[in-house]
Design brief:
Layout (H helix, E strand, L loop, with lengths): L1 E3 L2 E2 L5 E5 L2 E5 L7 E9 L4 E10 L12 H4 L9 H20 L7 E2 L10 E9 L2 E6 L8 E2 L8 H16 L13 E9 L2 E8 L6 H8 L4 E8 L11 E7 L3 E5 L2 E5 L9 H15 L3 E7 L5 H7 L2 E8 L2 H13 L5 E5 L2 H8 L4 E7 L8 H8 L2 E9 L2 H11 L3 E9 L9 E8 L4
Parallel strand pairs: 4-6, 7-22, 12-13, 17-18, 17-20, 18-19, 20-21
Antiparallel strand pairs: 1-5, 2-3, 3-4, 5-6, 8-9, 8-11, 9-10, 11-12, 13-14, 15-16, 21-23, 22-23
Helix pairs in contact: 2-10, 5-6, 8-9
């Protein structure tokens, strides 16, 4: 069927209409006239595959990655950077309007490095012609797709990934087999400040000492772990970790803070844009806060920034390793007014802080947003202001819809961290209506 693209969907798909029924078409740009092949009908909408483009948008560009169709992760790589920003702005505007009836102006802080920015490599391992290779499982597929080189990863990671694979293949290792529960399952590498941490996610059995000695010869890898994961879920890491060699965490600096990052702990995937994001959040914090709470605190960067302008800060994080990292960093930076606790954020807020007056709550939840327990804890507490950092416009907007019963949304700002994808980092500031 021949269709004209009218708008964008929440994942950056082009949306056309066939007899008033929306049709979502991946890879199509607004105002393009395209041939679309129907894939599925869901009653209120349909999905279709992009065929011939009869009239291409001037914002369409050549795709730089030879593995674009094989991988599918970079859903906007066919659009110019300015069009990518326009797509993300439309997604955020539509989400805020649809779910929360919010119509605030905002700007997106641009990314000066649209490729080669991702500081974390987390790739499944498969087999190709009897050799270990890295790749991805495209969304909705169980088919392993070999991806020899990813343009989004920092170049240093790609270089060292190949060196690690060369060592693994020299030891004739095999990819993970779910029946025997042995083999290499994932390769996880992270780089910050020129140093690299490595984690081999494997099946049962500890890697050999000879393999460890050969991995040590790879220049620049300053920390190495093995994680054993034999479960069938989507979680990359298993519960069992072995420290193979080097430091136990990466150390780096941000805005005068000395920070530590262990293998399982979360940190923003784009180091340079993360600095812009944290600077924006710090600007929104205000001065002379008596009590600040950061929920989903990760390694505690925003908590430590808040500690420099507040009397007391509490960071809450459920990943124990991240709490260790944050506590260690607070001590190194001599921040005696910040403490970190390992707990579910909603439970801790409800059980320990409900009756205390919180000047500022900072939240940076996972993509799914704040759960019902956290929303309830916020609504029944004495929190004056909230800074909500989100990587999902839809979950943010749905949460804001609930919070608007007691809070007014003062401002919306955005940072383009995940260029070439439809994801957008957003910062919303809320003030309790009774506090105005």
């Amino acid at each position: 069927m021949k269709l004209t693209i009218k708008k964008y969907g929440i994942n950056g798909e082009g949306i056309a209409y066939d007899r008033k029924i929306p049709v979502f078409i991946k890879g199509a740009l607004k105002n393009e006239e395209v041939e679309a092949r129907l894939l599925k009908s869901f009653g209120s909408y349909r999905t279709a595959a992009l065929g011939r483009i009869y009239e291409a948008s001037p914002e369409r560009k050549n795709i730089d990655c030879p593995y674009f169709d094989r991988c599918g992760a970079c859903s906007l790589m066919h659009a110019t950077y300015q069009e990518q920003l326009a797509i993300k702005a439309e997604i955020l505007e539509e989400s805020l309007r649809k779910y929360a009836d919010i119509h605030l102006p905002f700007e997106i802080i641009e990314n000066d490095v649209p490729v080669g920015y991702r500081n974390l490599l987390k790739m499944p391992v498969g087999d190709e012609h009897g050799k270990l290779v890295c790749g991805f499982y495209p969304e909705g597929s169980n088919r392993f797709a070999t991806v020899p080189h990813c343009l989004i990863h920092e170049p240093l990671l790609e270089k060292k990934k190949n060196e690690v694979l060369k060592v693994l293949n020299s030891h004739h290792l095999r990819p993970y087999d779910r029946h025997s529960k042995k083999g290499i399952r994932y390769l996880v590498m992270r780089t910050i400040g020129g140093n690299i941490s490595l984690c081999l996610v494997t099946g049962e059995g500890k890697v050999s000492e000879s393999l460890i000695q050969d991995l040590k010869k790879i220049e620049g890898i300053t920390s190495a772990y093995q994680s054993v994961n034999t479960t069938r879920g989507k979680e990359v890491f298993g519960r069992l970790f072995y420290h193979l060699y080097g430091g136990k965490y990466l150390t780096f600096k941000y805005d005068g803070l000395k920070l530590a990052l262990s293998t399982r702990a979360f940190y923003q995937l784009n180091t340079k844009q993360a600095e812009k994001l944290y600077a924006l959040v710090e600007e929104k914090m205000g001065e002379n806060n008596n009590l600040v709470v950061e929920a989903y605190a990760g390694i505690g960067v925003m908590s430590m920034l808040a500690a420099r302008r507040s009397k007391k800060v509490i960071g809450v994080e459920i990943v124990r390793e991240a709490v260790y990292d944050a506590t260690r960093s607070a001590k190194v930076n001599r921040l005696d007014n910040v403490e970190f606790v390992c707990d579910d954020s909603g439970s801790y807020l409800n059980d320990n802080l409900k009756k205390r007056t919180i000047d500022l709550l900072i939240v940076d939840p996972p993509r799914s947003g704040l759960d019902e327990k956290m929303i309830d804890a916020i609504m029944s507490s004495n929190i004056k202001r909230i800074i909500y950092v989100s990587c999902s416009p839809s979950s943010l907007s749905q949460n804001l819809s609930d919070l608007q019963a007691k809070y007014e949304v003062e401002s919306i700002d955005a940072v383009d961290i995940f260029t070439n994808t439809a994801h957008l980092e957003t910062v919303a500031v809320l003030t309790r209506k009774s506090c105005r």
